[in-house]
Amino acid sequence: MNWTRHHLLDIESLNAEEIQLVLSTARAFKAVGERAIKKVPALRGKTVVNLFVEPSTRTRTSFELAAIRLSADVINFSTEASSFKKGETLRDTARNLEALNADVIIIRHSSAGAPHFLARFLRASVINAGDGAHEHPTQALLDAFTILEKKGRIAGLNVTILGDILYSRVARSDIWALTKLGAKVTLCGPPTLVPRVFEAMGCRVTHNLEEAIADADIINLLRIQHERQRKTMFPSLHEYTSLYGLNRARLAQTKPDVVLMHPGPINRGVEIDSETADGERSVILEQVTNGLAVRMAVLFLINGGQSPEETAAV
Amino acid sequence: MNWTRHHLLDIESLNAEEIQLVLSTARAFKAVGERAIKKVPALRGKTVVNLFVEPSTRTRTSFELAAIRLSADVINFSTEASSFKKGETLRDTARNLEALNADVIIIRHSSAGAPHFLARFLRASVINAGDGAHEHPTQALLDAFTILEKKGRIAGLNVTILGDILYSRVARSDIWALTKLGAKVTLCGPPTLVPRVFEAMGCRVTHNLEEAIADADIINLLRIQHERQRKTMFPSLHEYTSLYGLNRARLAQTKPDVVLMHPGPINRGVEIDSETADGERSVILEQVTNGLAVRMAVLFLINGGQSPEETAAV
Amino acid sequence: MNWTRHHLLDIESLNAEEIQLVLSTARAFKAVGERAIKKVPALRGKTVVNLFVEPSTRTRTSFELAAIRLSADVINFSTEASSFKKGETLRDTARNLEALNADVIIIRHSSAGAPHFLARFLRASVINAGDGAHEHPTQALLDAFTILEKKGRIAGLNVTILGDILYSRVARSDIWALTKLGAKVTLCGPPTLVPRVFEAMGCRVTHNLEEAIADADIINLLRIQHERQRKTMFPSLHEYTSLYGLNRARLAQTKPDVVLMHPGPINRGVEIDSETADGERSVILEQVTNGLAVRMAVLFLINGGQSPEETAAV
B301 and B1 in contact (C-beta within 8 Å)? Predict the structure, then answer.
């Protein structure tokens, strides 16, 4: 199949074939990152704008480097110094960036739906780099890529997502991607953060850690936003860690070949202890490497790219 | 004619032929922005420094992208993290940047005359990206470019500049450029912001909106800096809008082919209402696109470029 | 000899031959900065990360431009917006950057030893861009380069370093480099800032300015961090200037061909007066230019480069 979409706004609207096309394209681009010359000319002369209204050094850097390795020109539009202070609307800012002949606008925004809003009136391609608690599609694609790489398949696997599901755009995008690809998804955490309403998305919901991890092929830990949630969502950070934190003892209760994932940055000693985070089952750093490959694939496909394998080094 | 200047400090010292050379050069570079590969090798291996002492994401981004599309290397020198905090002088900062073999230093500064000061001792080319309330030459060049593109000529046109003239570097540069090119310039706004002293620059000054817009071929709206001026320069924002804001009713009193311009960012509902800003007479977003072309032209000419038409894609 | 090191962590562990190799390599790269096309393809497709945990626009810009002129791709990792706010460790941040297939991580950090810490677990090359009061190796290399360029030799020269030695990483790196290359180093300043313990590094220590400058071939002035030290380390800024500030009268007491250096930014009127800083003996701006050449050399050698002379223009 060929890629036909002009934007990447969410995982919800993609079908399994589209997701698989991104993953197979990303495989070719992962190889580019391992070459002596980590660069291909695919997007030479294209302009990519990083419009990060919510700060994020990691994701922005990953997109920036993905664009650079495709030989695109990248502009980072900082909101710190931007016109938002002067009261300009998001719509006007985006249209001004597009007027610079931008081909792609990558947006992160604290409001759910901001990328979809932009896509309604922009000719440039819009990529959602995280919108509120809604979706973070490239994170789900890199998680799926990593699972496929480690397990050889996704269909039929038991994937447990552990932690703050309610406020997590990563959780939502992961659930869409993994269920579309045939995985069985279990959500686990305190009842305040993992309400039963998620069962409507086709997931099993449990508040019992032992039950959630016993048959898991993959455990995906989400970051506890303890700065914000500590006071309201659970009695104490210590209690969260004692009930849901992953450590050596709990790892002993999992399948021997379980794979541990985390979108980062990790809170060492909160949702995972250091020994487990750095252990042989953890693929946290490989997720970072795969994120770059997946973002190259998305940028490539959205700009009409067809065969990454034929893309010679610059 | 050939371009002979090493710096672009203001419009005041340019003659009409020089302005026209920039505009015709910009026409060729505008076409570059419409290609699949939006890049030419003209300034390959040149170093351009954006020294923005006064923050401005829009203008900096436009210059940055202009330099990138000419294949120059660009350094953004942020004043946030800079040595100014340590008490270094502007002179020392600029000479240190030049010592990095910079070919061009683009400066925005809150003090009028800062670019001229640098030009007195730097070997690198200096481009004024806005100095206090003095001049903003590339804005005037893009305004002239846009008028020429829309109307086919500038000489003999009636151009009305509306709003805060007194504190506006855009107004001063526009007045110089447009009168040199033969337009008849009318300035309009409250008496506190549009004093009669501007008649000495060859403009008509009026405080009556109807009179200012009736025969205008172009209306250039300036941003009301209402954060600062509201309390001191006019009784209220509401009063400004009711007396001078552009809207559908007032547009009906203009020539049917009037062109509406604004340097951005716009205050929707203050100097212009949304319907008018987004209407078919507005060329506000085209000004942004043209700004990139004009800045490419300036960078090209100042570095000794001759024929942009012969500049092949990279 | 060939360069064999994977990291550049300090000057202390280098031998004289290694230092001389950097200097001779830098000579070739200085010529690149004087070409019309200031760029070579040596590091095309390599990824260089500037990880500046302590802000520094000058040094970061110098490294960034050095990498760009070698055709590397550069990512600036700002700590302002970074994950450090979320409590991530330096180790995790560095490993995440490395997971983006970074080839080189350039680190500045307020803690002495941070680069050595990273080098223990990273596969990427680590370059120390200044760690606390410990070392700033590329500053010492550019100082040695400048001395060699001006004097034709380093061995046997009398080099006086004047000012805040105790808290200066520049002083420590300079002392290591210059004594390894055979210079005789004198340290001078107030007893609180120049303790006798530095004699153990092979230096002469004096608190008498006349004695320190009388036979100096080179005087290297360090910046007085008067914001911090004024109250604690010496009675007043005025007293420092009157006892140790360099000015015309004191310059008359030096050798006629003495060379004046300063790592910048200078405090005009404190450690040096303006006339002397801008005078013909000052090579302060040449140091900036040489810093770029030295950093290109370090990046080139650390990535396995051999003969910069054979590196054609891009």
Answer: no
The CA distances from residue A189 to A104, A211, A223, A272, in Å, are 37, 11, 12, 13
Between CA B174 and CA B136 the distance in angstroms is: 8
| ipTM metric | 0.93
Instruction: Decide if pLDDT at B81 tops 50.
Output: no
Band of residue B263 on the pLDDT scale cut at 50, 70, 90: very high
Q: Are B314 and A73 inside 8 Å of each other by CB?
A: no
- For residue B250, give the H/E element and its range: helix B248-251
Enumerate domains of chain B plus CATH numbers. Answer: 16-135+291-310 (3.40.50.1370), 137-287 (3.40.50.1370)
Question: Which of B240, B306, B249 is closest to B270 using CA atoms?
Answer: B240
Q: pLDDT band for position A56 (50/70/90)?
A: confident
Query: Which pLDDT does position B1 carry in this prediction?
Result: 79
Farthest-apart Cα atoms in chain C, separation = 56
- Coil, helix or strand for B219? strand
Cα gap C17→C23, rounded to integer Å? 10
Q: Region B90-96: what's the mean pLDDT?
A: 94
B196 interface with A at CB cutoff 8 Å: no
pTM of the predicted model as reported, rounded to 2 decimal places = 0.95
Residues of C in contact with B44 (CB under 8 A): 37, 39, 314
From chain C, the residues in CB contact with A58 under 8 A are 83, 96
Q: Which class for A199: exposed (0-12), middle (13-18), buried (19 or more C-beta within 10 A)? A: exposed
Among A58, A142, A278, pick the best mutation site for testing chain C contact (most C Cβ within 10 A).
A58
CB contact under 8 A, A101 and B292: yes
- By Cβ distance, the residue of C83, C92, C95 closest to A57 is C83
Q: Is A44 on the interface with B (CB under 8 A)?
A: yes
